[in-house]
């Protein structure tokens, strides 16, 4: 379960990619973990190779998974089984009330996508990390938030707001 949350929700990996992630695919870089997704992960998902930063909220779990892995994949290490299928085990271990939707790694991946967009990660970087060419915005739009209408409007006008203590100034970025 920890591997699924850390790598589906924390890095946006697909189910078939998670199954093959091992210690050699995780690297500590510049104060955070990254996961390298290569051909060994994408053979079934047919996604491109990519490097993805793992959400720092999962750093401690990832450290623990790396210690527990001992040469196995991170998902196997957390299950203790040699015939591990993360999705099947997770579904067996979780009792979901009937009123709630069932566990689905795609939902965790979509939540990761929304989180990246809400953090204002550049769209091209999000698409590259997700291994996507396009994005189904109508699916994600209800979950996206924009808390600063003033900043959004100034960006649309191509105006940079520069505020110094006690006063506000505006500079136009675009030129005619």
Account of the 3D structure:
The chain is of the alpha+beta class. It is built from ten helices and five strands. The protein has a three-stranded antiparallel beta sheet with strand order 1-2-3. A hairpin with a 2-residue loop joins strand 1 (26-29) and strand 2 (32-37). Helix 1 crosses helix 7 (105-118). It starts with a helix and ends with a strand.
Quick tags:
176 residues; alpha+beta; three-stranded antiparallel β-sheet; two-stranded antiparallel sheet; 10 helices; 5 strands; 43% helix; globular
What's this, in brief?
The protein is an alpha+beta fold and 176 residues long. The chain contains ten helices and five strands, in the order ααββαβαααααααββ.
| Biggest sheet character | 3 strands, antiparallel
Which structural class is indicated by helix and strand composition?
alpha+beta
**Series of H and E elements:** HHEEHEHHHHHHHEE
Indicate the overall shape. globular
End-to-end distance? 55 Å
Mean pLDDT: 80
Number of strands: 5
State the helical fraction.
40-55%
Strand order of the largest sheet: 1-2-3
Q: Whole-number radius of gyration?
A: 20 Å
H/I helix tally: 10
**Poorly predicted ranges (pLDDT <50, ≥5 residues)?**
none
Strand content: 5-15%
């Amino acid at each position: 379960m920890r591997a699924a949350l850390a790598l589906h929700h924390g890095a946006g990996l697909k189910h078939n990619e998670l199954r093959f992630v091992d210690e050699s695919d995780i690297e500590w870089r510049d104060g955070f973990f990254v996961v390298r997704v290569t051909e060994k992960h994408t053979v079934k998902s047919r996604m491109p190779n990519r490097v993805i930063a793992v959400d720092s909220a999962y750093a401690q779990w990832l450290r623990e998974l790396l210690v527990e892995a001992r040469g196995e994949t991170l998902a196997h290490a957390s299950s203790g089984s040699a015939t591990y299928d993360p999705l099947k085990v997770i579904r067996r271990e979780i009792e979901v009330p009937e009123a709630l939707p069932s566990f689905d790694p795609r939902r965790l991946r979509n939540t990761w996508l929304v989180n990246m967009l809400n953090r204002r990660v550049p769209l091209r970087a999000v698409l590259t990390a997700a291994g996507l060419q396009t994005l189904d915005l109508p699916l994600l739009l209800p979950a996206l938030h924009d808390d600063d209408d003033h900043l959004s409007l100034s960006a649309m006008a191509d105006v940079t707001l520069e505020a110094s203590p006690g006063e506000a100034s505006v500079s136009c970025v675009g030129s005619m």
